[in-house]
Amino acid sequence: MSSTWRTADVVEARFETATARTLALQFPEPVSSIGGQHVDIRLTAPDGYTAVRSFSVAGTLPPTGLEITVEELEDGEVSPYLVRDLTVGEQLEMRGPVGGWFVWQPSDTSPVQLIGGGSGVVPLMAMVRSHRAAGSTVPMQLLYSVRGPSSIIYRGELEKLEASSPPLPVEYVYTREAPPGEPVGRLSPATLMPRILPPAADPAVFICGATGFVETVAAWLVEAGYTESRIKTERYGGTGDGS
Amino acid sequence: MGIISSGFRGRRNKDQPGLPPGQYLTESFPVLSAGPTPRIDTAEWEFQLTTETGQSHSWSWDEFQNLPQEEFTVDIHCVTSWSKFGTRWKGVSLDTFFQDVDTSHPYTMFSSYGGYTTNLPMEDILNGKAWIVHQFDGEDLEPAHGGPARLLVPHLYFWKSAKWVRGLRMMDRNDPGFWETNGYNLHGDPWLEERYW
Ligand SMILES: Cc1cc2nc3c(=O)[nH]c(=O)nc-3n(C[C@H](O)[C@H](O)[C@H](O)COP(=O)(O)OP(=O)(O)OC[C@H]3O[C@@H](n4cnc5c(N)ncnc54)[C@H](O)[C@@H]3O)c2cc1C
């Protein structure tokens, strides 16, 4: 049942960037997930106080494991604990995976454009991994907006996917700091549109990231003629137009 | 009692009266939507109520504005675990819309511009429990938060408060709406933690 809490062992923890960490969780029973779903994680303090937050599933470790990737929000209640303090061998409580809308199924046949900002890449990576694992031949590409090269989550894996056959096309947008020869600056329709599948391809579009990012990008796409019902979004929170 | 994380302290704004189980308080106003934010012109806006006989009642934006308006302050609770206390709204009670409507069906399906739907039993929307609102905190409701007008059912999880609402139709069965077919609970009472299936 997706709505009951179950206990996970934290079996591995690795930093993806200076502020983002992937946690591998193992369960006593099988667990499965469709690319794009999320879980709720519950922490309980020694005095019984609890806090719950949602995290996208980053990938599965069949048959009994899955991974999440958490970006530390400096003033956050839960994310600093998951990124800095939690150690391998401890346990967590999890509910899910849940979600039947912001998901990519290997049986989907249309081209896919993934657009992620910051930690919003996590569920998109789950879709990429599921696409690879299934040997799907539908075109899938990723546009990933990051502060700078050092903020790229899954960097090594994305490089390998770009170089593999068939390659996963990945476009980076650098908002603060760029490698030599690459432009720096906020995303705009002018920089976005040439780097994603065109409206004529009628792609399924998945946009994920902080609320402001998702709001802005989704509105541009609608304006540019992408089919509204083909655009699926996941808003992580934070400020922006949303608040 | 769950698994203890010995290093976890937490911010403990939780033991607050009025905070349902598993929720935490936020000062900001997060946004949960499934797709792009639709932009709706009030000149074209219409709210339509359709009964089991196929009879429909509809209100233009001006007619809606001329209905008796209520201003009220309520707490809201999102299924993604945040709650926000003391949100101030202005709008029209569903009781007002139903005043001259003849129906015996016990359920409703609300629909929105953009295609979103959500199911609600009549007992959860009548008797001062639900409104169509168009102002938040003294300002016109922003599109990202459901403007120009959204449903507000504060005693249920916030996904039930359909944004960009355009109408409802009566149902004899409690058919699931959009989020309810996508993993969320058919009813959604935060005090019972009716979050998922
Ligand atoms: C469906 C879903 C999936 C998610 N998946 C992931 C994931 O895979 N990885 C991940 O790292 N996070 C993810 N998040 C966000 C996560 O649930 C938490 O909101 C985040 O970790 C912050 O929690 P916190 O307790 O540290 O901060 P809080 O104490 O809750 O918040 C601290 C402050 O930061 C603001 N804030 C909250 N979220 C953000 C944000 N994303 N960006 C900027 N400011 C913010 C809050 O408004 C608040 O002012 C997801 C959220 C949702 C709804």
Automatic annotation (TrEMBL), chain B:
Superkingdom of origin: Bacteria
Pfam family, one: Oxidored_molyb
Chain intervals for the UniProt region annotation (Disordered): 1-24
CDD domains, sorted: arch_bact_SO_family_Moco
Oxidoreductase molybdopterin-binding domain sequence ranges: 35-179
PANTHER family associated with the record: OXIDOREDUCTASE MOLYBDOPTERIN-BINDING DOMAIN-CONTAINING PROTEIN, PROTEIN-METHIONINE-SULFOXIDE REDUCTASE
Protein name in UniProt: Sulfite oxidase-like oxidoreductase
Species this protein is from: Arthrobacter crusticola
